[in-house]
Amino acid sequence: MITFQRTPRPRNYLSRREQWRLLLLMMSLGLVVILMSEAHKPANWNWLFAQGDAPTGRRADAGADEGTEIDNRLPDSPPDSTALPPGHILSSAPDRADPSAADTPGPSGDTGLFPGVEPKYLKSIRDDTTFRYDERHAWFNLLDVLRRTDESALREASLGRVTFAQLFNQPNEYRGELVTIRGTVRRAHPLEAPKNDKQIDRYCQTWVQPADHQTTPMVVYCLSLPKGFPTGMDVSAKVEVTGFFFKRWAYRAQDGLRTTPVLLARTVHWEDGSTATEPIGEPIGDADLTAKPSAMPAEPRADEPPKQQIAGPRELLQLRGIDESHLALLVDGRPVDDSETEILLNVLYWLGRCPTSDIERWARPMPKPAELVDSTEANRGEIFRLAGRIAKVAPCRPLPEVVERLELQEYYRCELLLAEQQQPAVVFALGVPDAWRRGGAVAGRAGAFGLYLKSAADDPRRPVPVFVAQRVAWYPDTLLGRLGMDVGLLDEVEDRRDLIDVDREAFYQMLDAVGRAEPGQLHRAAEAQRQQTGKDRDSVVPLFTSAERQRGKLVELSGTARRVVLIRVKDPDVVERFGIDHYYEIALFTDDSQDNPLFFCVRELPEGMPTGDGPEYGEHVRIAGFYFKLWRYRTSREDPERGTALGQLAPLLVGSRPRWYPQESPVANTTIQAIAGGLFVVVLVGIWLALWRFGRGDRRFHDQTLVKAHGPEAGIALDEIQLQADGTPDFAAIERMDRGEAQQDSPPTP
Questions:
Q1: CA–CA distance, 637 with 645 (Å, rounded to integer)
Q2: DSSP element (H, E) containing 40
Q3: Is the pTM value of this prediction over 0.70?
Q4: Per-residue pLDDT reduced to its tens digit, 169-192
Q5: What is the DSSP track for 5-17?
Q6: Contact criterion met (CB below 8 Å) for 517 and 481
Q7: How confident is the prediction for the chain on average, in pLDDT?
């Protein structure tokens, strides 16, 4: 059957109309996707729920709370604030800590948090407290996520710019969320992180004055700073920061306890400078170990607005809330009891955070114990240099609430016998050598910089002064101990890493100790040590394979120095305390090191010994020194995947002045030189005579043989020779060729 229905015409997708139609469809689809992406963010719906100017949602205009008065003083203070022990922190937030949950990692799941953030760890965080030990899992979890994530991805995932009031009033809502703030950095301090399983070594604490609430600072801990970013107590740099909100943190200000939001960030966006970041601290190689060690999380120093230098330990304690009225509660004539332990621990806490350079600068010579006790009120709170012998060490463990509040797990009660009189004294210290803690023999010379508190005996003829100190130094009966180094500092040195802050004090004390050795003393001691063991030389193998057992041991090595460079010490603290403004780093290659270097740091070089580096440099030396650590240094080779310098392990030693064996030049011998010169002249004359004789023979052969055979007869000139010609020349053939006539050769006649 034939039908005449009209069939639809196919679309011409090459026409302009169809192309516009497809473009509009694609743009509509993209708009729908964008709207869906933005609609799932609660912060974009604040306009619907906002009431007045109060920021009640998860996002608000950056200036919404500008000028709003916020009281950040710690709430729920007791009626009698003077009864609050110094450093005591009260918490008004409910205890949400869940130890079991905090120690058990779990997947983030669909929690709305950034990938990698563990919500179980966040449950251990408590607001309105100092940094607590139980919060370490959440702390390093967030820092690890920041380290593994690009800054652009963090900024894209941020909830947007939030205000100080939002973070302060709604900490539970923003906990673990990525937020953005703007403000001005007023202080920035590089800090060292404690040991952790995330291998995070350093970060920086910055105090930011928010743009929307300039009366109260915020604290931001960041993993890196922009290149050239200023640090110190007087900074003014406008920044924008994207990071995780951690908690509302309690700190001690001049007028009491206050709280402020704390953020963890990867870096800060410096609006007035470079955005390229660099890690906190300098890579070690030619570094000077200038950074100071610090606890984690570090106690803030923003509560120290006075920029002038603290005059003494009493002023330090007053700034920390421990004044004369607290020290007056200490009673002489009896041991430290429970009522005095609180004051003792607070003094110990703040003294432990004081720079060693200040403590040494404030220290006074130790008077006789009777004189010290007779003027107790005048001497209380002063620091004295203690020296004697250790008699007893006992660990002390504070109450659980003190452990949390002061971040103090353990301290030590040490009994010293001072000076030659063997006067007993008690020193409460934060640190002692590992050998004493492990139950080893407690013996040897010891010392400390002790802050005097009281007398613990009622007999004025035999007083027992009580001190607190950062640590008790140990000077065992070894060469290193006799040279005046606190050997207990070597317990804190960490192998297979760069030179880090915890190595700093031990490194410079060892360098100072070898500088006090007599010329050649270390070489003589090393030789005597080999004679006792029956070895002809010290092997480098244990230095590579068993670093911990070699720590502090004396060795003497010979080889070729391929690198000798001068290292300038820029830290005024080291220059002031030890008088060390430079040292030399020597890369030594020995016969048994299998082309692996060993590094020596020495105070000085022999006179005339050159410095240098490169394939053409090489000086034969013998160096005696003490083993410090197995050092990880950066080589010139690059990791093809990361594009960073590869690391290599090498023993690092601190030695005395090396013995240099320069390459001897041959002794000039004038007699031999004269004979050699004469022989050279004779040989030249002989060669000349031989050539002359050969030349004379050639001329004779030419004259007597060749000329006679081929030359004309003697006496006849060429123009006199009679030659007969057949006739005149015939040029007829040439004329015919010029006329173009073909010349046909007639066949020869038979």
A1: 6
A2: none
A3: no
A4: 999 999 999 999 999 999 998 887
A5: PPPPPPP-TTSHH
A6: no
A7: 78
